[in-house]
Amino acid sequence: MIFRNPFCGALPLVLTFACAGLRPGGEHEDISRIYEVVLEDAHGGSISFAEFRGQVLVVDLFATWLNPSLVNASLYADLYRKHRERGLRVVGVALDEQGRMVVEAFARALDLPYPVALADGGVRAGASIFGDLATLPRLMVFDRSGALVAVWFGLAPARELSRLIERLL
Fold it and tell me: What is the DSSP letter of 30?
């Protein structure tokens, strides 16, 4: 399990997992639920995470007004374009309160090649597989079996993320 959190970096490993909402051993309490997530997309349709079963899944939880979200989205778009044929899937989940118009404009302006969903009330309240979202942006990487293998907050480390994706594919 890879975990990076600027607020927990100097704490012992057990506390690091506690900060992420993870149990020691790398298991997320609700890991079996990733494929149950269904969210509205930025175009008014829906995204069912069940579509991504058997794929390496990168979930970007972000807000359009955060500068790190802009940088991360470009990185994830490049990774998706490079690895989609090998089974990489990326989904953005926007937590913007302004809704669909703002999120759709963001995705269009950045020419994002992957789907972008709108967080619902459960996601916003921290009552979902994604946990408490007090810190954004957050990147969660799931392997082909749906197991959570990495979580990052803030700017994603491009080189480390690329190596992880290569290994998982």
Answer: T
Question: Residue 147 is encoded by which pair of tokens?
Answer: 């197991």
Q: Which residues contact 67 (CB under 8 A, 6 or more apart)?
A: none
φ, ψ for residue 18 (rounded to 5)?
-65, -40
If 0-12 CB within 10 Å is exposed, 13-18 middle and 19+ buried, where does residue 119 land? buried
CATH entry, 33-168, from 1.10.390.10, 3.40.710.10, 3.40.30.10, 3.30.1540.20? 3.40.30.10
**26 vs 120: CA distance, rounded Å:** 26
15-68, pLDDT tens digit by residue?
233 334 343 334 444 455 788 999 999 888 999 999 999 999 999 999 999 999
